[in-house]
Amino acid sequence: MTVQVRRVLETDEAAWSRLYAGYRAFYKLDDDPEAVRTTWEWVSTAQHGFIGLVATVDDELVGLAHLRRFARPSTASMGLYLDDLFTAPATRGAGVATALLNRASEIAAAEGASVVRWITAADNAAARRVYDRVAAATPWVTYDMKPATS
């Protein structure tokens, strides 16, 4: 099986939407077609600095990754943040995630970025095995703060 990675195309919308719905279900997010449509718009038109990648096998979409640029004041450099990475269950273990991560690394190098960064669930053992092969886990703990209410 040969995995190809490329930028997302307008013609990918239906297949991408199925994969992204699978991503949302994996993380136990509500079924929200509007969130899927909005994310597609961002990724497919490069809004908010997004770079949409898809992985294909025999012209079938089997994975996706969404990157966006971010400033790193502490190093006076730019980085790429990996917001989403998902592979179709039938192709897990076939190198799809690794191919997407390798392409993210190539894009970072081409853009002069200093890092590709992402977070994952602590209990996502299968993904972490892949991540541990291509990246270094950090000691940082992530927090989420809700915006103030009026």
Give an overview of the whole structure.
The chain is α+β, with helices and mostly antiparallel strands and 150 residues long. The protein has a single domain (4-134), classed as Aminopeptidase. Helix content is 35%, strand content 25%. It has 4 helices and 5 strands, in the order E-H-H-E-E-E-H-E-H. It has helices spanning 13-26, 33-44, 96-111, 125-134, and strands at residues 4-7, 50-57, 60-72, 77-87, 116-117. A 5-stranded mixed sheet has the order 1-2-3-4-5, with helices on both faces. Helix 1 (13-26) crosses helix 2 and helix 3 (96-111) crosses helix 4 (125-134). The chain starts with a strand and ends in a 16-residue tail after the last helix. The mean pLDDT is 95.
Compile the SSE list and pairings:
Layout: E1 4-7, H1 13-26, H2 33-44, E2 50-57, E3 60-72, E4 77-87, H3 96-111, E5 116-117, H4 125-134
Parallel strand pairs: 4-5
Antiparallel strand pairs: 1-2, 2-3, 3-4
Helix pairs in contact: 1-2, 3-4
